[in-house]
Amino acid sequence: MLKIAFDPIYAHPLPEGHRFPMLKYELIPGQLLHEGLITQENLFSPGPVSEEIILLTHQQTYWEQLRDLTLTPKDQRRIGFPLSAQLVEREIRIAQGTIDGCHYAFEYGVAFNVAGGTHHAGSNWGEGFCMLNDQAIAANYLLKKGLAKSILIVDLDVHQGNGTAQIFEHNPAVFTFSMHGDKNFPFRKEKSDLDIPLPDDTNGDEFLNLLTETLPKLIAQQKPDFIFYLSGVDILATDKLGKLKVSMDACKVRDRFVLQQCKQHGIPVQVSMGGGYSTDIKDIVDAHCNTYRVAMDLYF
Fold first, then answer.
1. In CATH, what number is assigned to the domain containing residue 275?
2. Residues in domain Histone deacetylase (predicted)?
3. How many domains does one find in the chain?
4. Whole-angstrom Cα distance, residue 72 to residue 41?
């Protein structure tokens, strides 16, 4: 059964100017339910992740400033919106949803978080609307519990996973792979284990050629026993922030290839949705829903 983490708090309204991207968190499960692709049984609402687990990844001072709403105005500006208790609650539930998704992935092969992909959060900073790094937290949880020994993070959002790269810079058990827009945010990049920077206007064929050349080699070399996939749809040509020229169909082929590789090698995969900022919300929702459609077709 495909299990999907979703909680109404994911769609918590942000200050003016940030609300539009949040609509997708309600619309994605709504569309999947409308299509009959899933039922309510596929959806689960995660609880809050514990401080003990957060501190496997994030520095204690940073976490306490988040928890206690005492981050400096400068640090809040780096995140991109004013800190609030509800936003912190949202982040800790997203992180737990990704952890829960790992357990479901072990059982069913694949699992999703409607939100997540908060890859700009580093060990002691938040950035780019990310405060806690959900997939990094879940990866460290798996390592701590002895549930995985070798982890591959496949980050195909248009923005580099700079926080993820920094968190695992000195951890050989986690290999970080980021394929992203070279001239896009964040403008100060960290060093992933493998970065593939893409020039502006990279099209779908170019994107897919690089991916299909790279991912099978990484799996063969790293022999991961768990994969995290960040499936951002801000690579689309319609995206306001992406600067790439990838079509909707090519984005779906991307998802199919990544998930096929996971299934072919028997590697459980947890998928967090990442970014998407097309002008038309329908394009964002349809591209994200394609990732679920592909998973249903391959696994179920």
1. 3.40.800.20
2. 23-289
3. 1
4. 42
Query: Which whole-number Å values give the CA distances from 179 to 40, 197, 206, 281, in the listed order?
Result: 34, 6, 12, 24
C-alpha–C-alpha distance, residues 233 and 239, integer Å: 8
Residue 206 confidence (pLDDT) above 60: yes
Domain interval for residue 21: 3-299
What is the spatial distance between Cα 116 and Cα 61, in angstroms, rounded to a whole number?
23
Q: In the prediction, which pLDDT does 87 show? A: 92
In the chain, what percentage of residues exceed pLDDT 70?
97
Spatial contact of 226 and 102, defined as CB atoms under 8 Å apart: yes
Tokens standing for residue 177:
């792979």
Write the pLDDT tens digit of every residue in 178-195. Answer: 999 999 999 899 999 999
| pLDDT confidence of residue 18 | 54
**pLDDT of the residue at 17:** 52
Residue 7's φ and ψ, nearest 5 degrees, are -140, 140
Distances (CA, A) of 204 to 184, 196, 246, 253: 17, 15, 4, 9
Q: Give the percent of the chain with pLDDT over 90.
A: 93
From the list 178, 193, 100, the residue with the least C-alpha distance to 141 is 100
Residue where the block lists tokens 């951002």: 232
CA angle 245, 216, 234 (to 5 degrees): 25
Alpha-carbon distance values, 186 to 75, 152, 160, 163 (Å) = 15, 22, 7, 10
Q: Report the predicted TM-score, pTM, of the whole model to 2 decimal places.
A: 0.96
Q: Which residues contact 16 (CB under 8 A, 6 or more apart)?
A: none
Q: What is the pLDDT of residues 39-94, one digit of tens each?
A: 999 999 999 999 999 999 999 999 999 999 999 999 999 999 889 999 999 999 99
Q: CA-CA distance, 26 to 7, in Å (whole number)?
A: 9
Residues ≥6 apart with Cβ < 8 Å to 159: 119, 120, 128, 180, 181, 184, 185, 186, 232, 234, 275
